[in-house]
Structure formats: structure tokens, C-alpha cells
Amino acid sequence: MSSEELRTHSAVHVLKGAAQKVLGAKWTASVYVSGKHGRLTLQFERKPTDEELATIERLANEKVAEGAEVLEFEMERHEAEGHFGDAIYDIFPVPPQVTLLKIVRIPDWNINCCNEAHVDNTLQIGRVALGKARFRNSKRELELDFDLAGNL
Question: Residue of 14, 33, 128, 144 with fewest CB within 10 Å of its CB?
Fold first, then answer.
């Protein structure tokens, strides 16, 4: 993974935390990262308002500017589930035979089971600019396109 994609992938976790706070959206359906462009697809019940989208972008960039620590660690699956519950999972399943999970955590913001690499702190991500948001009513999915737009 390039350093650019490392930053973009890490931004997914920041955006998911913001979307959870603003929309209550919990489950990620898919993630796409290519260079400085990314897409976070969440299970959601409606199209968000322009104000909600602006708030997601603002909160995400506040978290980036905070320079919050991004923690990566491994835990036995039963221990992780006992400690964090289903908050570590997204809609795509982790195969049952996987007993050791890699966890990424931005304290008080986002926690996920994730096997990718991440930045050490959110300041390394740079400014996040939300692009087009698409709501797919038939799938109850919200796609949030975004780009890394440089330094804060």
C-alpha cells in the first residue's frame, strides 16, 4: 500500500466515526481506496441532508486536526468480542476460523477489525473533502466519496 493509500484508508476510519456520530450509521458495507480518493459505503435508511454531510466533513477534519492517536493491536477473537462487542465488525464477515483479529482504534471515535496498515495519528491524513453522496434506496446503502485535499 502506498503512503497516499495508507492516509486515504486511515481517513475511512475517521469518516466512519463522523458518520456514526451524525447519522447513527453503524455498519460499513464496503470500502474503496485508490490514491487520494476513497469511498465509504454504509448501511443507512435514507439520503442525508446537505447539513448532515457538511457536519460529517467538519467533524472528520476536526478529528484529523486533533492529531488523535491511531492504535493498532491484535487480540484473540473471543477477547475482542467480549471487550468491544460487535462494534469491531462491519457487514462483511470475518471467517469463523480467524481467531486472532487485528484491531484499529481511534479512541472515543472509531474501532474496527481491519487488516490494513494505518497512519500513527490522524494529523498525518491531511484534510478530507467529501464529494458526492449517493443513497441507494434498493440496497439501503449510502456511498460517501471523498478525497484527501492536502494539509489542514
Answer: 33
In one-letter notation, the amino acid at residue 33 is: V
Full-model pTM: 0.93
**Residue 19 lies in domain:** 3-148
Question: What's the CATH code of the domain at 122?
Answer: 3.30.980.10
Q: What is the largest CA-CA distance in the chain?
A: 43
For the chain, the domain total comes to 1
Give residue 30's pLDDT band: very low, low, confident or very high (50, 70, 90).
Answer: confident
Q: Are 142 and 41 in contact (CB under 8 A)?
A: yes
β-pairing, 100-106 vs 110-113, is: antiparallel
CA–CA distance, 137 with 139 (Å, rounded to integer): 5
Q: Is 137 exposed, middle or buried (0-12, 13-18, 19+ CB in 10 A)?
A: exposed
Residue 99 to residues 78, 79, 90, 118: CA-CA distances in angstroms? 8, 10, 17, 21
Name the burial class of residue 48, with classes exposed (0-12), middle (13-18) and buried (19+) by CB atoms within 10 angstroms of its CB: buried
